[in-house]
Amino acid sequence: MIIDLRSDTITKPTKGMLDAMLSAKVGDDVYKEDPTVNALEERIAKMFGKKSALFFPTGSMANQAAIKLHTNPGEQVICDKYAHIYNYEGGGASFNSGVSCKLIDGHRGMFAAKQVVESINPPDFYHSPLTSLVAVENTTNKGGGACWDFEEIKKIRTVCDDHDLGYHLDGARLWNALVNTNETALQFGEVFDTISVCLSKGLGCPIGSVLVGDEDIMKGAIRIRKIFGGGMRQVGYLAAAGLYALDHHIDRLKQDHNKAKEIGEVLRSLAQIKTVEPIETNIIIFELNADVNETAFLQNLAKNNIHIIGMGGGKLRIVTHLDYTDTMHEKLLSILTNL
Ligand SMILES: *Cc1c(COP(=O)(O)O)cnc(C)c1O
To answer: Are residues 82 and 174 in the same domain?
Structure first.
């Protein structure tokens, strides 16, 4: 039994999901003739109370398309120093959109409206890049699955309105936040101009993300997706997995969160571990004591068929997910306890 907790992306489609995929009705989605993709896009648009949604192969492409839609070359995006769009999308913001990032020194990937105000370059000061977009991530990945305070998110909306800035949410794991806080997709749709969500993270799809947004911004999205090479054909087979996941795999995220909390409790009791960051959803980030060798620690776990990853800076990450069973959980807790 291999216990793979490197990421919630390692899941394989369930039998039910595969059945749904096999029976999907499909067409050429580049012509917008795939009924299953159209149904998925309509459903997600409706969930968020938006006019428009578009299916993407990856969350990175959906985020990159959003940045492109909100900015012009030379401009600047405000985001946290931990942001996925800055750290883990291959430098795409500069490559695809010719923009730079103004990094906020936030807390666990989150920041305050006041810090946004301080980061905006005065638009008439032509020496500095023109600020055009604020991007927020919920839950935060590098921040350890932390959930934003919705009041702060709304305050930042006001700042964006006051300064004529776009407002994008990288919601790769927004589902985890919704389950944890009881906020709704509609609430988020009301506040943000564009939102990307992943179907291939906690929801267990093999592929797929959706960018949802207001009609005026989203009208250019299909062209950008084509330019990025993301126009897909009979992709309803994959959209069917997404529809299935929305029906069956959202409420169960609570189980991933509970397991993560239980793992955290055991980690906190271990002598080798210095700190465990607060656990709100399905991500656990912890730090080893200075005298514990990270490579040896990871190898020791690997010998027990447990796989987790290093995040750099002495931090390690565990992510719980759909394919992490109760049996695996019991085994993991007992192995950790006896480390
Ligand atoms: C995983 C992730 C993405 C998108 O990743 P892809 O692998 O390109 O689908 C975007 N933002 C965050 C915060 C993520 O964790």
So the answer is: yes
The domain boundary residue, chosen from 218, 248, 278: 248
The encoded tokens of residue 170 equal 């990288």
- For residue 50, CA distances in Å to 94, 164, 210 come to 28, 20, 12
User: In this predicted model, what pLDDT tens digit does every residue of 10-21 receive, in sequence order?
Assistant: 999 999 999 999
Nearest to 149, CA basis, from 118, 109, 186, 117: 109
Question: What is the separation, in whole angstroms, between the first and last Cα of the chain?
Answer: 18
Q: Let me know: does 81 contact 110? Beta carbons within 8 Å.
A: no
Nearest-CA residue for ligand 1 atom 6 is: 59
CATH of the domain at 320: 3.90.1150.10
Per-residue pLDDT, 312: 80
Task: Give alpha helix (H) positions in the chain.
Answer: 15-22, 35-47, 59-70, 84-87, 92-97, 113-119, 150-163, 174-181, 185-191, 215-218, 221-227, 236-248, 253-268, 294-303, 326-337
Overall pTM surpassing 0.90 (yes/no): yes
What's the distance, CA 139 to chain centroid?
A: 7
Q: Which residues line ligand 1 (CB under 6 A)?
A: 58-60, 63, 84, 137, 141, 170, 172, 198, 200-201, 209
